[in-house]
Amino acid sequence: MWVIPPEFPNLIPYLTINMRPVLLLDLSYPVPFYIIVISLCVVISLVSLAKKQPPSYLKLFTLYMILTLVVESIGWWYTIHGKNNLTFYNLYGIINIVYSIYLLRSFLLEGKAKHVFGWLMLAYPFIALINIGFIQKSLQHFATYSYIVGAVMVVICCICYFYQRIKYPGRQNLLRDPSFWIATGLLFFNSISVPYLGIVNFISNIPQYAYKTFFNINAIINIILYSLYCISSLCSLNFRKLPS
To answer: Is residue 188 part of a domain?
Structure first.
C-alpha cells in the first residue's frame, strides 16, 4: 500500500525532487519497484495456469494479483499527482483481508479450523463497514481500526496454518510448497505493517526524513510480500530437466 493520509497536505513536496517523484529507494525507476514485482507475479501466475492441473487456488489467486496490480497502480498514480488514494485502499483492504483468510483456509486440513476461518471471512466485511460508516466515518481517512482487526485475524490464521504444518508435516518439501511461501508472506507483512499503518491517522508534524522513512519501510515490506508470492507461483510450475 502507498498510503497518503489526508492530514499530510504537504507530503507530496516531500515525495518530489525537481518535479520528479521519489520512488522507493531509487529515483531512476519510472514506476515503484514493488509494482514491477507485482507485475512479475501476475505473469508467473498466468504461466502457472497453463499447466494441465494447476493448484485449485491458483485461478482466483491470479485474479487477486491482477486486482492488486490495478489498485496499487492507481494508488501510486494518485500519490504522485497529490490526490487522496485512501478510498481505493480502504475498499481494497476489505477484499484483501477476506481473500487472505480464504486463501489460508484453503490450505487447511482440519474441519474445525476451516469452520472458524469461514466465520471470520463473513464477519470481517461487517466489521470494516461499521468502522468506516459509524466509527471513523470516512473513506477519505485510512480505516486503521478495521485494518488492525483484519491484520490480527490474518496473523492468527497464519499461526494456525504453521501449527498444522508442524502437526501434519506431510511428504512434500516445505520449500517447494506454494502455500508455505504465501503464508510466510502474509505473516511477515501483517505482523510488521500493523505497528505503523495502525497509527497513520494519528501522526502529524513529523520531519521530512520521517516521512521518507515511513514510505521506504512500506515499500520494502511490499516488495518482500510480493517476492514471496512470486516464489509461491514458481513452486506451482513443474520444471522438467532437459535430456543430456
So the answer is: yes
- How far, in Å, CA of 232 to CA of 244, rounded? 28
pTM of the model: 0.82
CA–CA distance, 49 with 8 (Å, rounded to integer): 42
Eight-state DSSP code of residue 141: S
pLDDT digits (tens, 9 = 90+) for 150-183: 999 999 999 999 999 888 877 767 888 899 999 9
Q: Tell me which residue of 158, 165, 229 sits closest to 194, measured CA to CA.
A: 158
With H, G, I as helix, E, B as strand and everything else as coil, classify residue 42: helix
How many structural domains compose the chain? 1
Widest pairwise Cα distance in the chain = 66
Helix (H, G, I), strand (E, B) or coil at 120: helix
- The residue with cell 502507498 is 2
Show the domain range for 223: 11-235
Tell me the per-residue pLDDT of 99-140, one tens digit each, with 9 for 90 and over: 999 999 999 877 788 999 999 999 999 999 999 999 988 888
16 φ/ψ angles, rounded to the nearest 5 degrees: -130, 140
Strand, helix or coil at 16? strand
Residues 6+ apart with CB under 8 A from 55: 48, 178, 236
DSSP conformation class of 168: S
Whether 5 maps to a domain, the answer reads no
Q: Which of 183, 170, 220 is nearest to 1 (CA)?
A: 220
